[in-house]
Amino acid sequence: MDDWKVVYHEISSKKAMIYFILLAFHTMVSPQEIETYELVIKVTNIEVHTGELKVAVFNNQEDHLKRSIKSGQFKVTHETWLNCTFELPYGEYSFTMYQDVDLNDELNSNFIGIPNEPYAFSNNASIMFGPPSYDKSKFTFSEDHQIVEVKLK
Prior knowledge:
Blueprint: H1 3-29, E1 37-44, E2 52-58, E3 70-75, E4 82-88, E5 91-100, E6 119-121, H2 134-137, E7 139-141, E8 146-151
Parallel strand pairs: 1-8
Antiparallel strand pairs: 1-4, 2-3, 2-5, 5-6, 5-7
């Protein structure tokens, strides 16, 4: 074989090897797209028709009521219900919400900490000496366009 053909063959082989190594590395370290589905939280019992619903979604005990994985603000209209939609992967979740009637970005409460503005927790969990635990408010999200209903208190 001619010298230039041997050199060309070695270079081509090295380029091909480097290409395949880079391709394999890229496949290993590139984030895989997580498939998401539509979760609809249907909020009922809206009696005050001003402000926004502020919703926070959690996916584990440690972050429950501390660090949400998703949140949203939904304008309240003249209806007595409102759908709040989130795109999430299937799994176990909880959520909390309140209606910020006066749009001051905080849940107003009385002198002993009981909310003055409408609020709700997933599973319609009630408050007893504080907010409900993750275990009391968690639910399983397992179907596309799943609707979870909650009633404002």
